[in-house]
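Onboarding guide, step 5: your first structure request.
Type a short instruction followed by the sequence, for example:

Predict the 3D structure of this protein.
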Amino acid sequence: MEEIKIEAERIITPYKAPSKAYRYFTAVLALIGFACVGAVVYVAVTGADFGRQRPKTYSEIFAPLYKTYGIEPLPEALVDVPVYSALARLAKQPCNWEAMTALGQNLKDKKESWLAANAYLGFSKSCQSDGSAERAAADLFLSTKDFRKAQGLYADLTNRFPYADLDWYHKGQAEHALGMTNEALDSFSNTIALAREPAKLGDWVFTEMSEIYASAGRLCDAMMPISTYISLDPDTHDNPRMQEMLRGFSQKGNCKSYATGSDSFPVPDSGVIIVKASVNGTEGTFAVDTGASYVAVSPEFASRAGLSASGVRRMMTANGEADAKPAIAAIKLGKLQASDVPIVVLEKSLGKTDGLLGRSFLSRFEMNVTKTRLTLKTK
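The system replies with structure tokens like these:
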């Protein structure tokens, strides 16, 4: 028994508590273990790679370009492969027009015309533009019915490029939408006057102009653009739809005194028809000008005729832009008479004539021009 007791005492030793250093060391090892397990789980769930730098957003990648253009970053969701490609090309060459049009078209296709318009404006401010960027922006603003911005851009364009008839047309559309009736009528008139081949203009230019007159309550004047359209190519343009519009305006406006009479005038070898006509009872010498939108008189003749003109209207003439004052008058030419004819008083004299007889008078009549004779008669 004594031997067994001695052996048991040798095997079973008394318990000793671990040292403080040992306990601290094992706790640290446990924390490190838990951290490693947590990191493994995080990577497995999120796909994070602690060996790589956080990827940049598109806004960060193209921040220098956005700053150059002075525009807000595009929403990340819009930057697909085509948009990214266009932005990348512009980041290298900010004035690359081909890349700009690609960006604009892609944004437009995504129904983001407003963003596309502002991108075009940013391009135009940063690069030497020939008007194409501003024109693209204006077209997009017009399509989104931001008429105020569209009108401002088209106004700038017509100042820079006064002979671009399509800019005048779109300017007139924006002005009509904004309730700028007189300005819209001037813009449409300039569209017609500047067209290289007015007879090939679409009828919508003339019908829209008629609607502007009609919306202003000037139903008899609304007949003038339609009559002008017909006179440019009677064989093609004198159709039932145009005649129905004329009858409608005439009946609604009670335009019995709109135009009366018929007469004809010889065409000289020079091709310039000079006639005697009276404006508000004052006779003067006038050149018949089928290309002029309005009857135009010199300031000297306006003074003699006692014409009351006010306001300023920007006109396009054969000699370029000119400011004129609008007025209304009664005109008599031979056996022809018309009342309430829109006319303009020019700033400068016209040389040997007192004025021009333009379409605001001529289009009230059925007009036939041959090499030898001009015939006008009541419609």
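Each response can be followed by summary notes, for example: The chain has two domains: 59-253, 259-378.
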